UniProtKB/TrEMBL annotation:
<dbReference type="InterPro" id="IPR029866">
    <property type="entry name" value="StAR"/>
</dbReference>
<dbReference type="GO" id="GO:0015485">
    <property type="term" value="F:cholesterol binding"/>
</dbReference>
<feature type="domain" description="START">
    <location>
        <begin position="67"/>
        <end position="280"/>
    </location>
</feature>
<keyword id="KW-0496">Mitochondrion</keyword>
<dbReference type="InterPro" id="IPR000799">
    <property type="entry name" value="StAR-like"/>
</dbReference>
<keyword id="KW-0445">Lipid transport</keyword>
<dbReference type="GO" id="GO:0008211">
    <property type="term" value="P:glucocorticoid metabolic process"/>
</dbReference>
<comment type="subunit">
    <text>May interact with TSPO.</text>
</comment>
<keyword id="KW-0446">Lipid-binding</keyword>
<dbReference type="GO" id="GO:0006694">
    <property type="term" value="P:steroid biosynthetic process"/>
</dbReference>
<dbReference type="GO" id="GO:0070859">
    <property type="term" value="P:positive regulation of bile acid biosynthetic process"/>
</dbReference>
<dbReference type="GO" id="GO:0008203">
    <property type="term" value="P:cholesterol metabolic process"/>
</dbReference>
<comment type="pathway">
    <text>Steroid metabolism; cholesterol metabolism.</text>
</comment>
<keyword id="KW-0813">Transport</keyword>
<dbReference type="Pfam" id="PF01852">
    <property type="entry name" value="START"/>
</dbReference>
<dbReference type="GO" id="GO:0032367">
    <property type="term" value="P:intracellular cholesterol transport"/>
</dbReference>
<comment type="function">
    <text>Plays a key role in steroid hormone synthesis by enhancing the metabolism of cholesterol into pregnenolone. Mediates the transfer of cholesterol from the outer mitochondrial membrane to the inner mitochondrial membrane where it is cleaved to pregnenolone.</text>
</comment>
Length: 285
């Protein structure tokens, strides 16, 4: 009876449900099937409380009075797929080769991945708590051009729910102008699970941001940053950044490899400098 009532509230009582098509309709059907499964496996009714407290994940946009379009749902799915693929690459510890290492322990590793190409992995420890890094890298993403000279501008083109955004990034010239201006249109997804935060993304299409004259449209492959408190020192954060980029154009691989590994090292340096010069209290203003 509870399940039937819940289904009625969640779907049958809304007129638009009869007309929903495509991904939205499939999503609602999947939700109904999942709730059926959980009800049969948990006769105590505890699953009802989980639905009540996590309604955004189970009923998504409808209970939050936000109905995503099929295109928006496709962006959400693309962001989550990028996250899963990037985490899968990071989880395999074999085959990584050292590209660069600094005296402070910062290092860049690389690896060839089938169907992706060469990827780079930055590993650093930042003397700041996770929440501070999350604030700068996610909540204040559009301000990155103010402290990272490798980025001219990042603009959020569209926000989809609380986890997904479409961005346009204009990168500065690199390697003594051997690498001309590039821009990227990406879908980005941010997830926090307990003490771990994952920021992931990949190239996407966005009709309102066509290619710009004089700028080469490059593409991010599956990329991600993983943040978590350093074991034994919760006031410090371990940051791992997986970078996969197709810069397009006619560039020697040696130049590309040098630029990408150098970009990661410089990112860590500029991030630390920015965090030290901008106290947390000021950052929240």
């Amino acid at each position: 009876m509870l399940l039937a009532t819940f289904k009625l509230c969640a779907g049958s009582s809304y007129r638009h449900m009869r007309n929903m098509k495509g991904l939205r309709h499939q999503a609602m059907l999947a939700i109904g099937q999942e709730l059926n499964r959980r009800a049969l496996g948990d006769p105590s009714g505890a699953w009802i409380n989980q639905v009540r407290h996590r309604r955004s994940s189970l009923l998504g946009s409808r209970l939050e009075e936000t109905l995503y379009s099929d295109q928006e749902l496709a962006y959400i799915q693309q962001g989550e797929e990028a996250m899963q693929k990037a985490l899968g690459i990071l989880s395999n510890q074999e085959g990584w080769k050292k590209e660069n290492q600094q005296e402070n322990g910062d290092k860049v590793l690389s690896k060839m991945i089938p169907d992706v190409g060469k990827v780079f992995r930055l590993e650093v420890v930042v003397d700041q708590p996770l929440d501070r890094l999350y604030e700068e890298l996610v909540e204040r993403m559009e301000a990155m051009g103010e402290w990272n000279p490798n980025v001219k501008e990042i603009k959020v083109l569209q926000r989809i729910g609380k986890d997904t955004v479409i961005t346009h990034e204009l990168a500065a010239e690199a390697a003594g102008n051997l690498v001309g201006p590039r821009d990227f249109v990406s879908v980005r997804c941010a997830k926090r699970r307990g003490s771990t935060c994952v920021l992931a993304g990949m190239a996407t299409q966005f009709g309102e941001m066509p290619e710009q004259k004089g700028v080469i449209r490059a593409e991010h492959g599956p990329t991600c940053m993983v943040l978590h408190p350093l074991a034994g020192s919760p006031s410090k954060t371990k940051l791992t950044w997986l970078l996969s980029i197709d810069l397009k154009g006619w560039l020697p691989k040696t130049i590309i490899n040098q630029v990408l590994s150098q970009t990661q090292m410089e990112f860590a340096k500029h991030l630390r400098k920015h965090l030290e010069s901008r106290p947390a209290a000021e950052a929240r203003c």
